[in-house]
Structure formats: structure tokens, C-alpha cells
Amino acid sequence: MSIKDLVTNPASGRISTSDTIVVGAFVVASIVLFWLVWRGQLSEMIYTAYIAGFVTQNQMSKRAAIRRDEMERENKSEGES
Questions:
Q1: Per-residue pLDDT of the chain (81 residues; tens, 9 = 90+)
Q2: For the chain, how long is the longest CA-to-CA vector?
Q3: Angle at the Cα of 22 from the Cα atoms of 55 and 1, rounded to 5 degrees
Q4: Could you tell me if 23 and 3 are in contact, meaning their C-beta atoms sit under 8 angstroms apart?
Q5: In this predicted structure, what is the pLDDT of residue 15?
Q6: Is 16:7 a contact under the CB 8 Å cutoff?
Q7: Are 25 and 61 in contact, with CB atoms under 8 Å apart?
Q8: How far apart are alpha carbons 68 and 62 in whole angstroms?
């Protein structure tokens, strides 16, 4: 698996802007987190915010994908009728 696979839309094969932004944000946030650990300044609150931010984004993304898939199924079933 390459970095390009992480930011490419599997349906179209094109690079996804939103996935690219998420991967970029993850890399930058991780670098900041490691820097704070290195300096001994990582607080529990910062670590919790780091984890919560990415868990929340992931769940919202999944929820949007489920909704999109449901709408596509409804449109297909209406087209068949």
C-alpha cells in the first residue's frame, strides 16, 4: 500500500481532496504530538483531543458514506420500478 492509495477514490481512481486533507492533518498533528512528547510537554488533555479528533472525523466519514450508499440503493430501486 502506498500513500497514493490512501488518498485515491477507489470508485473513480482520482485523488480525493478530502482524503488528502485528512491524511495531511493526521501527519501534521502526529508530528506535533511527537514533538510535545520529545519536549516532555504532552498533557493528557492534548492527547485526548488528538485521539478524539480523529475518531470523530472517522465516524462522521463512515456515517456520510452509509447515508450515500443508502441513497444510491433507493435511487436504483426507484429506477427499477
A1: 777 777 787 777 788 888 788 888 999 999 999 999 999 999 999 999 999 999 998 899 889 888 988 888 888 887 765
A2: 64
A3: 95
A4: yes
A5: 81
A6: yes
A7: no
A8: 10
Task: Tell me the one-letter amino acid at 33.
Answer: L
Return the C-alpha cell found at 31: 508530528
How is residue 2 written as a grid cell? 502506498
Instruction: Give Rg (Cα) of the chain.
Output: 18
Are 33 and 50 in contact by the 8 Å Cβ rule? The answer is yes
DSSP secondary structure string for all residues of 44-77 = HHHHHHHHHHHHHHHHHHHHHHHHHHHHHHHHHH
Cβ pair 11, 24 in contact under 8 A: no
pLDDT value for 81: 59
Reported residue count of the chain is 81
